[in-house]
Design a protein that fits this description.
InterPro entries: ADH-like_C (IPR013149), ADH-like_N (IPR013154), ER (IPR020843), GroES-like_sf (IPR011032), NAD(P)-bd_dom_sf (IPR036291), Zinc_ADH-like (IPR052711). The chain is an alpha/beta fold and 335 residues long. 27% of the residues lie in helices and 24% in strands. It has two domains: 191 residues, Medium-chain alcohol dehydrogenases, catalytic domain (Quinone Oxidoreductase, Chain A, domain 1, Alpha-Beta Complex), CATH 3.90.180; 126 residues, Rossmann fold, CATH 3.40.50. It binds NADP nicotinamide-adenine-dinucleotide phosphate.
Amino acid sequence: MRAWQLPAGSTGFDKLYQDTLPDLTPGPGEVLIAPRAWSINYRDFAVAAGKYFGGALTEPAVPLSDGAGEVLAVGEGVTDFAPGDRVQGSFFLDWADGPQVMGRALGDGKAPGMLAEQVVLPAQGVVKVADSLSWAEAACMPCAGVTAWNALFEGGRPIGKGSRVLVLGSGGVSLIALQLAKAAGAEVIATSSSDEKLARVLAMGAAHGVNYKAVPDWGAHVAREFGGAHKVVEVGGVGTLQQSMNALASEGEIALIGVLADGDPPHPRQLMMMGGSIRGIFVGSVAMAKKLNKFVDAHQIKPPIGATFGFDEAPAAYAHAWGPDSFGKTVIVRD
Ligand SMILES: NC(=O)c1ccc[n+]([C@@H]2O[C@H](COP(=O)([O-])OP(=O)(O)OC[C@H]3O[C@@H](n4cnc5c(N)ncnc54)[C@H](OP(=O)(O)O)[C@@H]3O)[C@@H](O)[C@H]2O)c1
């Protein structure tokens, strides 16, 4: 079978190479999957650069956490899946439900990666995909989709009808969050560095758009002009956190997700003044992935795919996702 790999000590996605690896067989409790589509997440660049949490890769590794495909075979003792089932991997293989479990994470160089024609996963880390999604759409869900779900609906301050939700930038997590929030009856405010992208985000249903380059104090702007956010989908991190605090409505929550922006650490005064809170998000559990897929089917949500590439074009897909024209999800599909 064909697989893309990163070498030990990889320093970037320019080191990707295609390889032929032996066909796989599922052992007891395992599921053999033939992925049909994959999607790229910001963290996949950190893995390729040797800058993910585990540091540099110590041996060649198949990358990517996100893929969706068909079950080819199941190992002894597996009763929840059968050949032909449409499935995705769970980003965290060992977090079934409840409090966070930091176990094996797909595509980090230690757990299996999805960017291959065959992958074996433990059955506990496999989730059936929403019937309404194509392969490419389903491949957007394991990381970006579940993260957006967790940010909006889990924890002590879930959003609902009438909530105001602020999403930062037009990346995968933010645009799926926009779609989920809209479907839940929330009003969405979106930021972007590009007016052209903002126009696309407004066409997706955001009520308001703010260019964060043109309006550097976009946090106060959101509070003043739109009444503040009950939830901020915070993908910037240190560099945007002050503005996100300034954007809060009373008792709003910042779902702290990303690390896209460097900058000065925030002063927490505004968080205190607004009775706000910050909740750390690390993707989510198998149970959250199941809830997300059910919600996606119920609301016929189609995740935003900005560009699609073939399996042999994986390096070009990475380059696109890294570049300025990236919008929503960049997807790879099997030819
Ligand atoms: N904690 C978790 O569980 C988790 C899960 C998934 C992702 N993440 C993190 O969340 C972040 C987003 O991930 P992603 O996969 O959605 O990324 P992505 O698709 O690569 O998003 C890229 C977009 O982010 C926007 N952006 C960049 N710098 C920004 C800034 N300073 N302020 C606002 N927006 C900015 C840009 O939008 P415009 O071009 O419109 O300006 C850019 O197009 C990453 O840091 C990723 O590592 C964390």
